[in-house]
Amino acid sequence: MVPSESALAVPGLDANTIPLDVYRIREDFPILKREVHGKPLVYLDNAATTQKPQAVLDALMEAYSGYYSNIHRGVHWLSQQATTAHEQARRKVKEFLNARHEREIVFTRNATESINLVASSYGRAFLREGDEILISALEHHANIVPWQLIGEEKGLKLRVIPMNDAGELLLDEYPRMLTEKTKFVALSHLSNALGTINPVKEMIRQAHERGIPVLVDGAQSAPHLKVDMRDLDCDFFVFSGHKLFGPTGIGVLFGKEKWLDRMPPYQGGGDMIHYVSFEKTYFNEIPYKFEAGTPHIAGAIGLGAAIDYVRAIGMDAIAAHEHELLEYATQVVSQYPEVRIVGTAKNKAGVLSFLIGEIHPHDIGTILDQEGVAIRTGHHCAQPVMDRLGIPATARASFAFYNTKEEIDILGKSIQKVLEVFR
Ligand code: 7TS
Prior knowledge:
Blueprint: H1 5-8, H2 22-26, E1 35-36, E2 39-40, E3 42-43, H3 54-66, H4 77-97, E4 105-108, H5 111-126, E5 132-136, H6 145-154, E6 157-161, H7 173-177, E7 182-188, H8 200-209, E8 214-217, H9 229-232, E9 236-240, E10 251-255, H10 257-262, E11 273-276, E12 281-283, H11 297-313, H12 315-334, E13 339-342, E14 351-356, H13 361-370, E15 373-374, E16 376-378, H14 383-389, E17 394-398, H15 405-422
Parallel strand pairs: 3-15, 5-6, 5-7, 7-8, 8-9
Antiparallel strand pairs: 1-2, 4-10, 9-10, 11-12, 13-14, 14-17, 16-17
Helix pairs in contact: 3-11, 4-11, 5-6, 12-15, 13-15
Ligand 7TS binds near residues 110, 188, 217 and 219.
């Protein structure tokens, strides 16, 4: 089968991308077989969190039933097995991100904790009163509030790259906002509320020209697009395991070695030290310096299994499939004149935010739920995006590689139901 035109429209994809076999893939996800309110589940809330393939469930089960033990400290066999599996998971993350070294991969709880770590540690070490941090109008609260917290502590100023009504950043404004006062840039790669893909590679290049480090919030991009640390050249990159078909409670911070080495610890405790006395403590080397206490051992192993799983499908094939779903869903919902799509950026990934007339998004979500369709309604932890667009909330369907066009047809028919109820 030749990939369709729309599949080829995904930036960075070539004609050799082999389409994925969605019906075979669905067999790997036990939860997708279940019914909700007597209807087959149509799970379209993938931007909130994603479902887990059997391979991840098996890896968790095996970790707990086969070789579970605490890591980095035991001389006994089980501890060595668990340590090896945990560090192998770190290697898988490093390869997935095309990072230079495992030292650059810190395990955290989630994307949120990864950003808090950087804001707190980098902020304490390198930011001074009057310095400016530049973020964008498209950020999730996780890439706003940590900067406000350190900002208040240190007297920093938060500046915001504006966006247009389509949900695209004003890229002409951006270089003008990079001044001698700008000391850090933090950008979402893919907007969870609108689906906009930001041109972060070029934005990183422009910041670097002025010697300014950049953090990329990859919570939405890492599960859906190919991401490459050496190509992007960002200083920091964060994502959550649970959005990448892995377990909850495990996240990743990628940081360039030159920064992680110079940054102070985020939390103190076991494992992050080299030597402790009451007078003075010597910290462990990176990444362990940032991993205080017993980590989510099985979570990291489960994330490693999730990475193996998505890499076997191929990130290009995943991006192409989801792009096709987005285009199809856009057509399907556009049949209804009452539907207004919120977020119409030219470069968009599998997120479709919409409104139906004056109907409250929560009512849309409730009626869709009765049809077995799970979507998200609300501000999506991106209240400034909603404020900018002058709306309190949207209904949001977000896609993953296991979704089908038939499911989008069901979404369309459910929207029809909403219209009938409110007519
Ligand atoms: N950054 C972005 C862009 C996100 O979409 C999210 C979560 C986060 C950070 C935080 O991720 P966490 O795993 O640390 O919570 N976004 C969403 C969402 O869109 N609906 O629920 C969570």
